[in-house]
UniProtKB/TrEMBL annotation:
Organism field: Meiothermus hypogaeus NBRC 106114
Protein name as annotated: LAO/AO transport system kinase
Molecular function (Gene Ontology), one example: GTPase activity
Origin superkingdom: Bacteria
Pfam families: MeaB (PF03308)
UniProt keyword Nucleotide-binding, yes or no: yes
The keyword Nucleotide-binding belongs to this UniProt entry's keyword annotation: yes
Family: Belongs to the SIMIBI class G3E GTPase family. ArgK/MeaB subfamily.
Length: 308
């Protein structure tokens, strides 16, 4: 059987191979994606927060909760890439290894590959493959730095922001504008000092925030992931938000925004490749012989005097 047939036959190795081909940008991967895109429909949950917030441990517990409900679960853990080598740590799977023998759980690390917001277009393409494979729920865990929180809201149906007490997380959330995009807030490590304070800060700020689509009011929950405390409540909140999207016909808009993000990511990646090839033009910009716009138009193959 070819890769497409093996994929449809639920061969996990075929799924892994398909994601690798898509992530690496091979034509074979794009052809396979074209055949499979649009199959299946999963609940996509974005999990984001600052490093050390306990995202991976929380994800591990959410996998457990989903399996109790007989859901097939996939996880995409997006790791930061080095801006110098392009390499990534890809270490999140270590914390979720207890699920590795469960055939209804698939965990994959992806490199951000220098994407400006921490999410690469390959992440969305991989989501399409996981949906086509028949997973019911897909968790996307982001690096939690830069603008990745904002990007994940464009990709996920439900965005969960994970904060911790006594780490200045609330202040950072307010500054970064993440308050406007998170659908569910959870204060993890709630057993540490300062837990009640950050919950009250979040609730007060949300009362002053702009109204959400169709009147959704983001809940503020608490959890202690290693002890599995607060996990069922968090899962129910995620489900309530998804039901809200269904009731108000907002899911189609989510899908369109996800496609828009994927196209923009492809354009960004193409532009980065072009700049690596155009050293002479870059030198001319540095010396003042060309404006950045003129150089960009030449790199993109736009004829002089035209605009697209």
């Amino acid at each position: 059987m070819n890769l497409y047939e093996r994929f449809l036959a639920q061969d996990m190795r075929a799924l892994a191979r398909a994601i690798t081909l898509v992530e690496s940008g091979y034509a074979e991967g794009q052809a396979l994606l074209r055949q499979l895109r649009g199959r299946g429909h999963a609940r996509v949950v974005g999990l984001t927060g600052s490093p050390g917030a306990g995202k991976s441990t929380l994800t591990d517990r959410l996998i457990e909760e989903a399996r109790k409900r007989d859901e097939r679960v996939a996880v995409l853990a997006v790791d930061p890439s080095s801006p110098f080598t392009g390499g990534a740590i890809l270490g999140d799977r270590i914390r979720m290894m207890r699920h590795h023998q469960d055939k209804n759980v698939y965990i994959r690390s992806l490199a951000s590959r220098g994407a400006l917001g921490g999410l690469a277009g390959a992440t969305v393409a991989s989501l399409a493959l996981l949906e086509a494979f028949g997973f019911d729920r897909i968790f996307v865990e982001t690096v939690g730095v830069g603008q990745s929180e904002v990007d994940i809201a464009r990709v996920a149906d439900t965005t969960v922001l994970i904060l911790t007490p006594a780490a200045g997380d609330a202040v950072q959330a307010f500054k970064a504008g993440v308050m406007e995009i998170a659908d569910v807030f959870v204060v993890n490590k709630f057993d540490l000092p300062g837990g009640e304070r950050i919950v009250q800060e979040l609730k007060t700020t949300l009362e002053l925030a702009a109204p959400r689509p169709a009147g959704w009011k983001p809940p503020v929950l608490t959890a202690v992931a290693p002890k599995a405390e607060g996990i069922p409540e968090l899962f129910e909140a995620m489900e309530a938000h998804y039901q809200h999207l269904q009731k108000h016909n907002l899911l189609e808009a989510d899908r369109l925004e996800r496609a828009r993000f994927e196209i923009e990511s492809v354009i960004q990646e193409w532009g980065r490749r072009k700049t690596r090839e155009g050293q002479e033009l870059i030198a001319r910009v540095a010396h003042g012989d060309l404006t950045p716009e003129e150089a960009a138009m030449q790199l993109l193959g736009v004829l002089e005097g035209t605009r697209t």
